[in-house]
Amino acid sequence: MEGLRVIEHPVLARALTELRSTDTSRAAFRAAMAEASEMLAYEALRDLPVHEVEVQTPLEATTGARPERITVIAVLRAGLGMVDAFLRLMPDAAVGHLGMRRNEETLQPEDYYESLPESLASTTVFVVDPMLATGGSSSAALRRLRAAGARDLRLVCLVAAPEGVAAVREQDPHVPIIAAALDRGLDERGYIRPGLGDAGDRLFGTE
Ligand code: URA
C-alpha cells in the first residue's frame, strides 16, 4: 500500500511469529516485541540525516558520521513496548508519551495523557504504536503532534491493517509508515486478523 513500508527479514519474521502465537509466554512476548522493534527501528532510522565529524583513529585523522538527535513518541500503552528498542540504537533520544485509549464501544480514540518533549519541532519524530488497526489512535496522535509543532513524523508499527493505513494516510498523507506486517483486515471488534491479539494486554499481563 502507498506510504507503507513492510520490512521483510527472516529474523523479523521469526519474532513476529512468536508475537502471533498463543503458545508464547509473557516473557517471550516481551522479548519478541523488543527484538522486532529493534529491527524496525534500525530500518526506520535508515534515512536519518547525519552530520560529519572529525575523528582520530590510532593511526590518523579521518571523518566519521553522527546521526541527528531524534524524538520517540510512545502511544500508550502498547507503544511502551517499542521505546527501549529505539533507545538502544539512539540512546540520547527524547521520549514523549501520548495516552490514546480506544473506546471499545465506539472504537474511537480517547486522549487521556500527554507529555511531549521540546525537541518535537526540531527533530525527526518516530511515533511508536504496535497495532495499526482502525488507525484511530495513530491518526489522533499524529494530528496532536502536528498541532504541537512536529514537522517530520514517521509511524512505526508491528502489525498494520489496510483500514488503519488508509485512515492514517487520509489524516496525514505524507507520513511514512513502517511495519513488520500488513495483515488481512479488521474484525467486527476492531481487532487485526490474523493479528496477535491485544498487544497491550499481552505485554502487560492484563489479558
Ligand atoms: N489493538 C491491539 O492491540 N490489537 C488489535 O488487533 C487491534 C488493536
TrEMBL record:
The gene is upp. This is Uracil phosphoribosyltransferase. It comes from Baekduia soli. The keyword RNA-binding does not apply. Belongs to the UPRTase family. The keyword Glycosyltransferase applies. Residues 6-206 form the Phosphoribosyltransferase domain. GO terms for biological process: UMP salvage; uracil salvage. GO terms for cellular component: cytoplasm. It catalyses: UMP + diphosphate = 5-phospho-alpha-D-ribose 1-diphosphate + uracil. Allosterically activated by GTP. Transmembrane segments: none annotated. It is an enzyme of class 2 (transferase). Keywords: Allosteric enzyme, Glycosyltransferase, GTP-binding, Magnesium, Nucleotide-binding, Transferase. InterPro entries: PRTase-like, PRTase_dom, Upp_B, UPRT, UPRTase/APRTase. 5-phospho-alpha-D-ribose 1-diphosphate binds at residues 77, 102, 129-137, 198. Pathway: Pyrimidine metabolism; UMP biosynthesis via salvage pathway; UMP from uracil: step 1/1. GO terms for molecular function: GTP binding; magnesium ion binding; uracil phosphoribosyltransferase activity. Its cofactor is Mg(2+). Coiled coil: none annotated. Uracil binds at residues 192, 197-199. Catalyzes the conversion of uracil and 5-phospho-alpha-D-ribose 1-diphosphate (PRPP) to UMP and diphosphate. Its EC number is 2.4.2.9. HAMAP family: Upp_B. Binds 1 Mg(2+) ion per subunit. The magnesium is bound as Mg-PRPP.
